[in-house]
Amino acid sequence: MGFSRITSSLLALAFAASTSFADEGMWTFDNLPAKQLQQKYNFVASKQWLEHIQLASVRLADGGSGSFVSPDGLLLTNHHVARGQLQKSSTSEHDYIKDGFYAKTRDQEIKSPDLEVAVLISTENVTDRIARQIRDISDQKQQFKARKAAMAEIEQESQTKTGLQSQVVTLYSGGEYWLYRYKRYTDVRIVFAPEQQAAFFGGDPDNFTYPRYDVDFALFRVYENGKPIHTDNYLKWKPKGAGDGELVFVSGNPGTTRRLATVSQIMFDRDIADPLILELIKNNIDVLDQYSARGSEQARQAASDIFGLQNAQKAIKGERDSLLNKETFAKKQKDESDFRSLVMSNVQWKQQFGEAWDAIAGAERKYEPQIKFRFFRNLDSQLAELAETIVEYVAEIKKPAGERLAGYQEARLDSLRLQLFSPAPVYPEFEKVKLAGSLRLDVRELGADDPFLKLVLDGKTPEQAAAALIDGSKLADPALRKRLVEGGEKAVNASDDPMIVLARKLDPIRREMTKWREDNVTSVVQRAGEQLGKARFLAYGKSTYPDATFTLRLSYGQVKGYPMNGTVAPSKTTFYGLYDRAASFNDRGPFVLPSRYDQGRDKLTLSTPLDFVSTNDIVGGNSGSPVVNRDGDIVGLIFDGNIESLAGDYVYDETINRAVAVHVGAITEALTKLYDVGPLVKELQIAGPSSQRGSP
Q1: Cα 364 vs. chain centroid, distance in angstroms?
Q2: Where are the beta strands (DSSP E) in 142-300?
Q3: Which of 338, 343, 277 is nearest to 313 (CA)?
Q4: Comparing C-alpha atoms, which of 487, 476, 399 is closest to residue 149?
Q5: What is the mean pLDDT of each run of 10 residues along the chain (696 residues)?
Q6: Which residues are CB-contacts of 645 (< 8 A; sequence separation ≥ 6)?
Q7: Which residues pair with 166 in a beta bridge?
């Protein structure tokens, strides 16, 4: 055995040893760390257990996760995940976010305007097939095109054959490619949501913190052909929940992580991209706050946008702060240094993969002067986004699927049309304020002579341009949008709607930006990422998990408190704590109790667990994920992470990273004692399939 092979084996063993007992990882269902689970928790996940959890888990296109909790399609997720559909279904007379909602009968359930949910049915490794398509291509731009065409071909072939929505997913930075097939549902109806003040008690000050006191849940029902679906794969409700130290799993769709990113990519995020994003977010929050101050209806219209922006602001700032931490950044540098040294010590690996890091760093340097265009050629307007999509759609669908812009491949068109033809309301004055606010920032950053902005402003001030575009457009009418799309390029080119006219003018600039990014950044990073993915497999085997990709993952951990602020955070909070926190702030601001909870205190068993924390590894996108025990019963509902977990896009630290979940006992307590929802309680307590169990 040569020196480099010995080194490789020793490092692989060291790597495995260092991770074998940490509750780290967002694992694909085909590659769970079975040995670690058995050694630490004496648990073996049977094939039946995994299939049951997978088919009970749901991905919501709004950006979260959920699970079936009854045989009649009842779907549990977070209130804040459901918030977008609650907002779109609300009016000035009925604010379902503020006041909550309950459908006493199924005919009272509200159809969501544009929510799509998807259940992962099957996966297939297609790495070899894609590799064959690009094997003889040396030019990275041509390789990028060939890879893109191969992925589109696989998706379209699968969708035609199976009728399932098909998506090729890039894992391990391109080390593997997998085909994911989904059953999608678009008739999703709102069943129940508590008041916002119960779901988001503590507001933005408490967001990404713990201890917490939120009842952050909502219920939908999934229909097909006008009837509730029937499923045998739903999670049995266990009000007792999970105790301290108990093994629990989280099944959900974490959005994105950058744990396999190179140091140069991390530095680009920290020093270049994140500050620009935070500037953009701050500007938008300021604009919306001013609009909200006009009155209660304006505040209602802007509330969900503000909620999302504040959430993103806190998350991105926390991520950046973690990268500014010398210890965290030193850890990332050491991880890369060890890996790079291992590759460079092997002559063959060095020849194959040794230039990948420098290639990525070079692409990042080249992108730096261009990055502002991505953020500040920005039109913050729902109507502008619809116009852009319509103009691109009618042009792209005429091309072969592999040559289209991202998002317009055949397998994605049904989902795209659902959004394009959504009946959700558009508020003209709100649109004007957002668009003008974004244009003021764009001009400040790029100057009024920027070619993109000159076309948008056309000699007007941001306020004048926004008013002319919004007042003149009829795109708020979904029927008009549908006619334009169905009429194709001929109808779109003939349209005199000012938003469509502008989108046509801006289209060449947008395409030029996309092509530049693909030729100079994306194609380079994709190719180099594949090289590093292959090197990682050779060095370490498949002993780790891929970065998150908003696809189904399973994490494991235990209910456990952690050291905090010189003391210890408990593994759970109770209703006692909710009332104490409200009283401590004199029932003011984000700490005021909803009247139902204020007046119903004596009805509750205050010692009932409310929220709890576990060592499960999660990130954004996991919101709404079920927390299940070793029997596959649902014991909690993920809704947040603690402030220490904001570094989770890049690193995981089991000592302080915690997932925050609503306790199933708290949901049960609230539903049975504070809300008059007898039929719903009965449905939730129907026993789940007794045969679906993990092996102890």
Answers
A1: 24
A2: 165-171, 176-185, 187-193, 218-224, 227-228, 247-252
A3: 277
A4: 399
A5: 35 36 90 95 97 98 97 97 98 97 97 98 97 91 94 96 97 96 98 98 96 98 98 95 96 96 97 97 98 97 97 95 92 95 96 97 97 96 98 97 93 95 98 98 97 98 98 98 98 98 98 97 96 93 92 98 96 98 97 97 98 97 98 98 94 95 97 95 66 38
A6: 208, 618, 619, 657, 658, 659
A7: 181
